[in-house]
Structure formats: C-alpha cells, structure tokens
Amino acid sequence: MSDSSVPPTADLLAQHAEWMRALARRLVADGHLADDLAQDAMVKALERPPGDASRLRGWLHRVLSSRLREEQAARRARHRREAARARDEAEPSTEALVDRVHTQRRLADALIELEEPYRTAVLLRFYDDLPPRQIAARQQVPIATVKSRLNRGLAKLRTRLDADYGDRRAWVTALGPWLLQPSTMPLAATAVAAGGLLLNVKAWLVVLLLTVVAATGTWLWWPAAGASTPAPVDEVATPIGAGRGSRGGDSRRGPGATPRRAPLQAPVAARPRSARDEPVATEPHPVRGRVFDTDARPVPGVSVRLQEVPDHSVKTAADGSFELSTTAPRVAVEIADPEWVAVRTGSWSLDGALDPVLVVARAISVQGNAVDEWGRGVPGVRLTLALPADFGQRFDQALDASFLQEWVVTSDAGGGFALVEVPAITGAQLRAVHDDYEPVVMPAPTQPSSRLVVELRTPNIPEGRALRGVVRFADRAPAVDALVALGYATVRTDARGLFTLDLGAAGDAETISAVAPGHLPATLARPAAQSDGRSGWPGFVELWLGAPAFSIAGRVVGEDGAPKAGARVWLGDPSRFGVVGTFPLRLEALVAGGEVPTEAIDSLATRTAGGSAGSARPASRRDALAYWVETDAEGRFELPGLLERSYTLNVADPGLHFGAIKESVPAGSRNVEIVVPDGVAYPRVRGRVRTEAGDPVPGVTITTWVPAVHFVEPIGGGGSADVMRFFLGDSTKTDAEGRFELIELPRQHVQLHLVSDQIAPAYASVDQIRDPDAFDVEVLARVHLEVEVAAREGAPEHIQAVDDAGSIVPFLAMRADGYSHLSQVTLVNGRSGVLTITSNAVSLQFLRGGEVVDAMPISPRPGQSLQIQR
C-alpha cells in the first residue's frame, strides 16, 4: 500500500485551503459567501476526513459543491417564503413547467446532435469551462477558428430550436421564467460575467442558454406586479481572434521584426499605463469590404457577418462588395455561408485606413489515413493544408486587412485523420510531418474525400552519411523520445532509444548532444578528424545522459523586503541546443520540459537550404524556445533544467509593475535573493510619431515589451533571427497630431512596438529618450507596390528594392495578424502581387540568375499605390 492511500493529515488539508477559497470564488460572486463556504467545507474535511489522501482535491471539490447546493437550496427556500407572502399572481401551470423542462432537454439534445467540429467546440467552452485560447491550444487550431466554430455552433443551435418551435420567441418565452427566476439568474449572471461556468449540469446549461438567447437579439421581458422590467441580456463581447503568428510576424499585437538591441542587464521598473483608451464609436459606423475567391475573382451572393454579431448577415453584391455596421472599435468579418470557408477573414478598425478583404473557397472535408511503407497506421502525424506558392501573386488587391487562417490536424492512434471544412484550392499542398519519417508534401484535394492515403517513408540516408546511435540513462535504460542534435540536424530517439542522423544535413559540427527532460545532457565530440571522405564518426555511438539537472531557487523581494508575487523569472543567457526546421532550440528549456513548438515542426516541410527566416512572436506559452517560472505568494521561485554553470536571471511581472536583473548566479544556488529596486521609471513620457518628412501619424498603437529570448544565428547556410517577447503593461494610441503619452515608463530595457495601417512596423527603445517631454519617434510610411513584367526570353525572375545607400529595403507582405519579411520577391507569371515597401526605397532592381539585369528609380510617397509594368 502506498503512502497516498492513508487519510490526509490536518497539515495536508491546510495546504489546500487557498485552493478551496479560489474554487469557491469561482463558483459564487459574493466574496464573503465564498469564504464562508470554503471555511465550512474545510471544517467538514477536518471533522470527517476522506480515507484516501491521493484523491483529496476531488473529494474537497465534492464537499464544496455539496455545501454550495445546500446554500442555494436554503436561499431558494427563503425566496419562496418571501415570494409566497408577496406574490399576487397565480402559480405557473404544470404545462408551462413541462414546456421549460422540454426546452432545456431539447437544447441538450440539439447540442449532442451538432455536427463536428461545432459540438466539441461548444462542449469544451461551456461544459469544460475552457476559454477560446485554451481550446485553440488543445485542438491545435487558431483562436479565430475556435471563435468561428463557437459562433456557428450557437447559430446552429438557435436554428434547430427555431425549427422545433416554429418561432424563436416561442422557445425564448418558454425559457424566460426559468432563466429569470431569482434562484437561477444570479448564478448564471455570475458565470457569464466571469467568463466561466458553475460545476453542476443545470448551471452550465443556464450559461449556454443565456448565450444562445443573448445572440438572438430578443428581449427577455416578463414583467411581474411590482417588479421592474428586466434589461435585455447583452452578448458578452470577445476580442478579435487571430491565428498563430508566422515566421516574421507577430500574432498578438500585429507585425513584428527583430530589433537591434543588447540583452537585459539592469533593473526594469514600473509599468507604463495607457494614457488614452481605444476609440469608441458613439453611433454605428459602416464596415465596407469585398469578398474574393482564391483566383482573385469577386464572389457575389455569399453571406458575411461580423464575428461579434453572428446572428446578422448580409449578402455580397455582384462585385463582391458588402456593407455592415458596428459601434465597436474593432471587428472581424467572417463568412456566414456553410458552403464556403474563409481562407482569409477580414479585419476592420475605427481608426484604420484599410477596408476588410475576405478570401473564400468552397468548403470540403477530407478524411484518410497516414500510413508507413507497410500500410500500418502512423499516429501523431501533423498534417497541414498550405496555400499555393503563388497565392499572393494572384491578387490585385492588398490583403493587409485580413487574417490568415490555418488548417491543421494530428492523426489518431490508428493513423486516421479528418480535416473538416477546409478550402478547395487549386495548387494548395497537404504537408505531413512526423519525427520518424521524411516530410511529405503532396497536392491537396480539391474535392471531398474519405479515403485519402498519406504514405510516409523512413529517411533514406546513404550509408556513408548515416550516424547511428543510442541514448541511455545512467541506469542503462533507453531514453525514449530524447532529442539528439548534431549541427543543423535534430532527430528523436525511438522506443529503444535508437536514432539515425544524416551527417550531410548536420554541417561541420564537432559535437553531438542528446537531451531529455530532467537530466543533464549527453555530449560526445567527434573522435577523429575528417579525412579522405571519412566523417571522423564511428558507425555507432552511445550517448549517456547525466545526473538530474540543476535548479536555482530563491525569492524576489522589494527594497523593503516584501515578497513580490506573480513575477516571471527566466534566463537571460540560455544555451543553444540544436535546430528543428528553422527554429533554434534552447537547451535549458528542453531539460525543464519545454516542448518543441508546432511552428518548428511545421517548418520542417518548408525549410530550404540557404534560406533565412525570422521570428518575432509573443512568449505566450512555455516551450523549447522560451521557458519561465512564476513566484508564489511569498515571492519564492525555483527555475529548473539548468547546467552546471552560472546564469543571468531576469525578473518582471506581467503588468510591468516591477523588474530586475541578477547576474552570475551559479546553478544549484538555493537561497538567491533578487531585490527589485524602486523608483526607476519616468513619471511621464510625452512624444510624437512622425514620418521622415515630419508629418504626424495618428492612430499608431504603441505597446511596451521586453525580450524573453533574443538570438541571431546561422542555420544550414542561411540564418535565423529569433525574438521571443513578453508583451507587458498596456498600450496607447497617438492622437490626431501624432502625440502620445506613457505613464510610469521604465527607464531601461523596455522596447516600444509601433503599429498602424499607415506605417511599417517600427520599434523604439527607452534608451533613445533624451527629453521625456519631447520624445519623437520617426517611422517609415507604407506604400503599396505591384510589379508586372512582360513574358519574354530572359525576363527577370525576382525583384528587390534598395535605399539611397544601396542597402536592401525589405518587402512586407502584410496581414492583420502579422507579416512576412522578404528581401526578394519571386515573380510568378511575371507578377509580384500587391506588396508593401517603405518610403525610403529609391530603386527597384530586377534579377535573373541571382544577378541584377535591370533597375529603375522609384519615389514612393505615403498613401500612394505604385503599379509598375516592364
């Protein structure tokens, strides 16, 4: 019998007190009532503890739920007594009660009958109490896809109830008295306000019903004698969701790039506060845009809607145009026709300069199996639908005001997969990636399919280039799923700890390394020099993982010794491990248990030799690129996964209220104290955003951030620049004169990210501030450019732009949730598509075979759209 089978002690129960209080406060809005319920539950646990401590939290959960039900029953009884004295209306009829129960049951049945993927999305949101971002992470889809599925799922539920009852008001009316009874409304309102759900079936159904009813636009109005008219139930607004950022783009705040700056080396201070709220429309504003198919043709007669108002849609005109209206400052525009699926959804903002553009395709579903050479199903294959290589060149319209969508699925235990509601696009690709097999790239289906077979093959490495080996723990047990890296080649070990590396892909690296969570890595230097075509490596190598990894433990405190809770602690100087695709991994993050991000896995199928890539994205989750821990209520932390060396520790809290740096901390240290200094911030910073010509730029969003990880390093003949950011603090916008104000801005190490429809993504550093009352930031204006070259022998293949110093000016393929940063653009059928350049470009160069064969001067001006034909 294990120790966990004995009853819990009072000390063990006391350790769960804070968790009990937090749980109680999730269940009820009244903080005093929550504390009383938690205290009562703990008293019961102490008086009659469970017999098995291993399931303590589940038992406590049931005790608290029971106490809540008792309290609710008591309140309902009290209300009934009070209502009986004051009631001057007849009791509801048995028929009305039966109607309400029938409607509740019908909603539950309709939910179960929903087709996928809507059923799972609604259940995860309302039954499992998961926010859209967690659902997106679990299902490995963009958050915009989750929100779209939720909106469509709720719309389908309303449609089914409408069909059952013949009239929407009929089923809303049937639900009304139940939803508005005093025993139900406070609980449901609490759950909706908190964005969460109560734990019993009735409560989550209440919230689902409220959400379904709220989006109908129907008022819940059942006046009673002496009672005021209930207000309409408003739909809870959700922020505009965007897909995961791509290489070179930033999925949280818009475009991103790699700034030139040194790592953090000194304290970070107080949080900047927004001096100006986002603009709010006081009356409806028109949202005008257009819808195109994937061949850039207008699509008439297709329904579109605002994501925030899913129950109202309009059909596009003959030229694909549409007009909606909103009072919200920002909205997303999505397709509302089940026969079509959005390839890019639209983005509109009150202070934006661009109209939303939607790109749509016929929706199909594809099912099949991923198999190996022997026809056996392969689980865990990541399949992605990728747009055609010439997708951007097909359009004469700028796609800046649109969100890029993604379609990703992972094969199940038998190798089966289903891509639901994916676009049928001529020239699209289906890409399949798995650690043990070569990436597969094949034409994507353009018709529905239920028997698609994706065959994966074991890497065919020539014998002279194969380096085989095994990774073991100190007790000789094989290290399963360990990562092994040599130069630019990284592979995983199999169930026996075996691996095979391609020396041809590894480059000239001299050391092979292996890593598994929790253990010091294994390393082995090349035992012999390369000579006469020999690699210097033996035919088989053994790699032995080391002892348990080190950690650093300590506290974060203020100058007064008070603990700093909720602070992030991370390494300022992590070690490089290897490369997956175009992503360099961090060794300590892997040892700490960080997973290889899906972006890296996807890049395996698209990586080209000698190519360069860039990443600038928010550090929103712990993974193999960035890893951090948070301090507890006493300011304590323990940072795991460390090697036997000294590190620089960075500290900042999510609100940027405080921060600090501590250098040269030896791994294994246990009582490290990081003191956060006080008063190292500008009380106020005022400035202006202007162009090179001195013109003010209104509507620029300015966001503060600090780097989590910053690396620039070569990868396989090319390069990779990676910046992982913590977006901390608030943002502000420039006014009509381009002015802005930031409150309590730290004096060091904080960066400013500047984004708007009129400028190229820009960066500024607090290190540039000379006068906090006159901090001007110069930016470059965006200019759209489209190039078309006549088909002829010897025609150019690529274009590039340069400034007056002859330096490359990168092209920007913009979108609402990021951008691609391109030094050259390939001409497809002589077309470039609509690109963005900056106002400092002075010459456009035409290349063939890597050589400049022609050039022409250009003078891009803000607001201009250049169309060049050669």
What do you see in this structure?
- The chain is 20% helix and 35% strand.
- The protein has 870 residues and is α+β, with helices and mostly antiparallel strands.
- Strands 4, 5, 6, 7, 8, 9, 10, 12, 14 and 17 form a ten-stranded mixed sheet that branches. A five-stranded mixed sheet has the order 29-37-36-39-40, with no helix packed on it. Strands 43, 44, 47, 49 and 50 form a five-stranded antiparallel sheet that branches.
- A hairpin with a 4-residue loop joins strand 8 (330-335) and strand 9 (340-349).
- Helix 2 (17-27) packs across helix 3 (31-47), helix 5 crosses helix 9 (168-180) and helix 7 (132-139) crosses helix 8.
- It is globular.
- The N and C termini lie far apart (82 Å).
Q: What's the arrangement of secondary structure elements?
A:
Blueprint: H1 10-15, H2 17-27, H3 31-47, H4 56-86, H5 94-113, H6 118-126, H7 132-139, H8 143-165, H9 168-180, H10 185-194, H11 201-214, E1 249-250, E2 254-255, E3 273-274, E4 285-293, E5 303-306, E6 309-315, E7 321-326, E8 330-335, E9 340-349, E10 357-371, E11 382-386, E12 402-404, E13 408-410, E14 416-423, E15 429-433, E16 440-443, E17 449-455, E18 466-472, E19 483-486, E20 489-492, E21 498-502, H12 503-506, E22 511-515, E23 522-525, E24 540-544, E25 550-558, E26 568-571, E27 576-580, E28 583-586, H13 587-591, H14 598-603, E29 612-618, E30 628-630, E31 636-642, E32 646-652, E33 659-666, E34 672-676, E35 681-691, E36 701-715, E37 718-733, E38 739-746, E39 751-755, E40 762-765, E41 775-779, E42 782-788, E43 798-802, E44 808-809, E45 811-815, E46 818-822, E47 825-826, E48 831-838, E49 843-848, E50 851-857, E51 865-869
Helix pairs in contact: 2-3, 2-4, 3-4, 5-8, 5-9, 6-8, 7-8, 10-11
